């Protein structure tokens, strides 16, 4: 499955882009959320998807991983049109929201193990325990495999979701604010893991509010506003002074709900989960 | 020992043997399916299916009467199976369409199921009292044919419920992630719905349609009181399910009480006992520092004293403004 996916278009020299979206429109209920988004992510790129709350970032990535149906436009992932022919085992996804606590308890290990299932693989592969343990190790939770997820802190739960995406050793990672609520040491560890995986050829599309620890990795930034791409190119650099990393100011009462590009590298909106318009 | 003699008599009774075997199978299967239902917040689905199955019983009865079959209720159980599967699949379709209407659809199933059952049994020339055996169980009248059907259906339930556990867990735990993994989410959801319907119909003989859901849900409630993991919750629930079914049924050999009601009351008693004993169980865990042993997220020295407590709460730490 892995090897087939890389070169479906034999005539082209380069493999098909990891993500190719053309003129994607998405309607949710009565609202027109995405209004003609074009996005290409080549193999090996690390693309940051930026934009204010409600600009449609999550909607876009959820469309890319086949959770939301586009009302118009085409999407192909790893060279295959969206659908069951996409090698989903090569795609890792970290959703934005920690799923609302389910009623039956589940351990971190069980949640991570569910990342090993994809496509037609409905049963855990041989040696799954070791792979789950390795993935938890990557996010620094090796000793919490047997703990109930509901008893982990918000940031730890977020790291479990990262491990769930990494456990299948994906070629393409789609991350929706993976480090929101994750402490600085764990963010550094996450960035180090990403650096290593990107060095091995991983492609990453990551929704962020600030580039943070991932800044050195990001090769390109795409900015959404009102469901349209308004910038596609060099990632914004922190411009000195009070915008520098480690010196973030939060202005809860700042007027205007829509940030523009100049504010992108500034501190995130107040980070407490729940204060943002989560999808 | 009188007790062993009595047990010997009970186990030697062929009627009781069949009943115990049916109770054993249902006791294992119902909590397995119940675990998935609880996880998807569909704890009441079993009740909804149970009510619809009643219409199926009456419909089978009506068809049997129309065809002039020797025993009017020969088609009652097949009717229940068909109605339960159809009703359960319908609920699943409604749940997919829009989340809000799932509740209403369940309520309509409740009312429609009972009303339809009573109406049809009247048309079939029977009376509501004919439905009593199905509403409250009739395990003492399990025939070899019934037992065979129970064995086959329970095998299907356990094959799906245990064989696909990882996939069903994934879909029940985080449907969005399962979809993004390319899993056949629709088929897996349908599998749970169908298996739930089958469970209701096999458990119908043991505890009755009105109490089926209790056998699926209460053991799970007990399981999650004592474990942290999905797998162990399911295991504990099944063990509890088997135990209360066998003990409850055995009691009816000596006391003239309803098996279904006895089983459910036992299960609830176990739940109450475990809930009360839980604080003791928890306190026996080794007391360790749950906080991760990693460097502080912020320069504590530059932070006003008392406002920070290290990295215990991951959420929000990174965003706070280290002044
Ligand atoms: N299920 C839904 N039905 C209708 N509108 C929705 C739905 N989900 C999201 N929206 C709307 O779509 C818009 C885009 O939401 P989206 O979640 O994509 O934003 P986002 O860019 O990810 O924001 P954030 O930074 O807060 O995560 C928002 O205005 C939101 O109100
Ligand atoms: Mg979002």
Q: Strands, helices and their partners?
A:
The complex is a heterodimer of chains A (279) and B (323).
Chain A: H1 2-6, E1 19-28, E2 31-41, E3 46-50, H2 57-64, E4 72-77, E5 80-81, E6 91-94, H3 108-113, H4 128-138, H5 154-166, E7 172-176, H6 184-199, E8 203-207, E9 220-225, E10 228-233
Parallel strand pairs in A: 3-8, 3-9, 6-7, 7-8
Antiparallel strand pairs in A: 1-2, 1-4, 4-5, 9-10
Chain B: H1 2-12, H2 14-39, H3 45-66, H4 76-97, H5 101-123, H6 132-136, H7 144-163, H8 165-173, H9 175-180, H10 185-207, H11 212-226, H12 230-254, H13 259-283
Helix pairs in contact in B: 2-7, 2-10, 2-11, 2-12, 3-4, 3-5, 3-10, 4-5, 4-10, 7-10, 8-10, 11-12, 11-13, 12-13
The structure holds adenosine-5'-triphosphate and magnesium ion.
The site of adenosine-5'-triphosphate has 17 residues of chain A, from β2 and α2.
Please tell me about this protein's structure.
By secondary structure, chain A is an alpha/beta fold. Chain A has a domain at 8-100 and 171-238 and 259-278: Rossmann fold, CATH 3.40.50. Helix content of chain A is 21%, strand content 22%. Chain A has helices at residues 2-6, 57-64, 108-113, 128-138, 154-166, 184-199; strands at residues 19-28, 31-41, 46-50, 72-77, 80-81, 91-94, 172-176, 203-207, 220-225, 228-233. Chain A has a six-stranded mixed beta sheet, with helices on both faces. In chain A, α4 packs across α5. Chain A is globular, with a radius of gyration of 18 Å. Chain B is mainly alpha-helical. Chain B has one domain: ABC transporter involved in vitamin B12 uptake, BtuC (Orthogonal Bundle), CATH 1.10.3470. Chain B is 72% helix and 0% strand. Chain B is built from 13 helices and no strands. Chain B is globular, with a radius of gyration of 24 Å. At the A-B interface, α3, α5 and α6 of A face α2, α8, α9 and α12 of B. Adenosine-5'-triphosphate is lined by residues 28-29, 31, 33, 51, 53-59, 96, 276-279 of chain A. Residues 57-58, 96, 176, 279 of chain A line the site of magnesium ion (MG).
């Amino acid at each position: 499955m892995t090897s087939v996916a890389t070169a479906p278009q034999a005539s082209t020299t380069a493999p098909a882009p990891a993500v190719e979206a053309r003129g994607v429109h998405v309607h949710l209920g009565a609202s027109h959320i995405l209004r003609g988004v074009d996005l290409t992510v080549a193999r090996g790129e690390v693309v940051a998807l930026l934009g204010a709350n409600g600009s449609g970032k999550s909607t876009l990535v959820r469309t890319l991983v086949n959770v939301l149906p586009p009302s118009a436009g085409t999407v192909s992932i790893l060279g295959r049109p969206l659908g069951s022919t996409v090698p989903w085992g090569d795609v890792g996804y970290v959703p934005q929201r920690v799923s609302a606590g389910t009623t039956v308890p589940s351990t971190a290990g069980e949640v991570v193990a569910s990342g090993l299932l994809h496509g037609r693989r409905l049963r855990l592969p041989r040696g799954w325990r070791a792979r789950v343990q390795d993935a938890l190790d990557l996010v620094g939770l090796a000793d919490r495999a047997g703990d109930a997820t509901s008893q982990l802190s918000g940031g730890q739960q977020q790291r479990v979701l990262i491990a769930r995406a990494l456990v299948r050793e994906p070629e393409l990672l789609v991350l929706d604010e993976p480090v929101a609520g994750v402490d600085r040491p764990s963010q550094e560890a996450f960035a180090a893991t990403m650096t290593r995986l990107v060095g091995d050829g991983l492609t990453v599309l990551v929704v962020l509010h600030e580039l943070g620890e991932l800044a050195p990795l990001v090769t390109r930034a795409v900015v959404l506003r009102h469901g349209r791409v308004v910038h596609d190119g060099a990632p914004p650099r922190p411009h000195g002074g009070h915008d520098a990393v480690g010196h973030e100011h939060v202005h809860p009462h700042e007027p205007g709900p829509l940030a523009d590009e100049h504010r992108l590298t500034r501190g995130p909106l107040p980070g407490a989960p729940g204060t943002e318009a989560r999808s | 020992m009188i007790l062993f003699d009595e047990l010997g008599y009970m186990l030697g009774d062929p009627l009781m043997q069949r009943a115990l075997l049916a109770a054993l199978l249902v006791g294992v299967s119902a909590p397995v399916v119940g675990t998935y239902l609880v996880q998807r917040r569909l704890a009441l689905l079993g009740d909804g299916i149970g009510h619809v199955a009643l219409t199926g019983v009456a419909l089978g009865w009506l068809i049997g009467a129309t065809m002039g079959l020797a025993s009017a209720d020969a088609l009652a159980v097949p009717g229940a199976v068909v109605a339960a599967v159809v009703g359960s699949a319908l609920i699943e379709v409604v749940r997919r369409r829009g989340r809000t209407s799932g509740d209403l659809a369940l309520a309509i199933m409740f009312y429609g199921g009972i009303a339809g059952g009573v109406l049809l049994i009247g048309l079939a020339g029977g009376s509501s009292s004919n439905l009593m055996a199905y509403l409250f169980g009739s395990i003492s009248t399990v025939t070899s044919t019934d037992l065979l059907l129970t064995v086959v259906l329970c095998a299907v339930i356990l094959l799906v419920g245990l064989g696909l556990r990882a996939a069903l867990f994934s879909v029940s735990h985080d449907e969005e992630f399962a979809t993004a993994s390319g899993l056949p989410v629709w088929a897996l959801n349908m599998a749970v719905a169908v298996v739930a319907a089958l469970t209701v119909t096999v458990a119908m003989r043991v505890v009755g349609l009105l109490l089926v859901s209790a056998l699926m849900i209460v053991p799970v409630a007990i399981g999650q009181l004592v474990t942290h993991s999905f797998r162990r919750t399911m295991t504990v629930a099944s063990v509890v399910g088997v135990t209360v079914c066998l003990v409850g049924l055995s009691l009816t050999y000596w006391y003239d009480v309803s098996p279904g009601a006895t089983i459910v009351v036992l299960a609830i008693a176990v739940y109450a006992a475990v809930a009360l004993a839980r604080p003791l169980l928890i306190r026996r865990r080794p007391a360790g520092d749950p906080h991760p042993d990693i460097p502080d997220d912020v320069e504590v020295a530059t932070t006003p004293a008392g406002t920070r407590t290290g990295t215990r709460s991951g959420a929000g730490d990174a965003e706070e403004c280290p002044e």
